[in-house]
Amino acid sequence: MGIIKRLGLNFKWLKRIFKKRKARIGIYGPPNAGKTTLANRIVRDWTGDAMGSVSNIPHETRRARRREGVTLNSNGSSVSLDIIDTPGLATKIDFHDFMAFGLTEEESKRRAKEATEGVIEAVKWLDDLDGVILVMDATEDPYTQVNVTVIGNMEARKLPLLIAASKLFAFKDSLCFPTASACANISS
Questions:
Q1: The domain spanning residue 114 has which CATH number?
Q2: pLDDT at residue 83 is higher than 70
Q3: Which of 75, 88, 115, 131 could make an SS bond with 160 (beta carbons 3.0 to 4.6 A apart)?
Q4: For residue 187, is it within any domain?
């Protein structure tokens, strides 16, 4: 049983946000923030399938992937989602960065080209969505150019936005996030 089902979450709030029983939701964020991991979790919990593969190499997802008709049911409420897992948004994609992960120069250049095309595709999807989940890496500064740009685009399009923090496991021994002024380590 998935975590959403185990928690017994009710989806009336989701229907209020997106004002529909069926919605097309895009999952956005920077590379390696956890977009595909989240998409896989949602799809796996409700269908048993997965959206795509994940990797520690940035831009594993270089084309938007769509999964239609994922119906979430809980406590008498349901909502049907078309989930779009988008490539990581970035302001700079350099093939040298991929070479640092051991990819050949040829593979790195191909990946950089595909990643750049994926960013363009992700931005185009914004015109066909009912809402967005912005995945933000909790170990990174939330005020990156990518995050600010995505939020600005949602605001301009009047699209509902849900922000999801990822990589919270990095703070398992801490009472707060690194942006807080005083963190207390509870591991001792």
A1: 3.40.50.300
A2: yes
A3: 131
A4: no
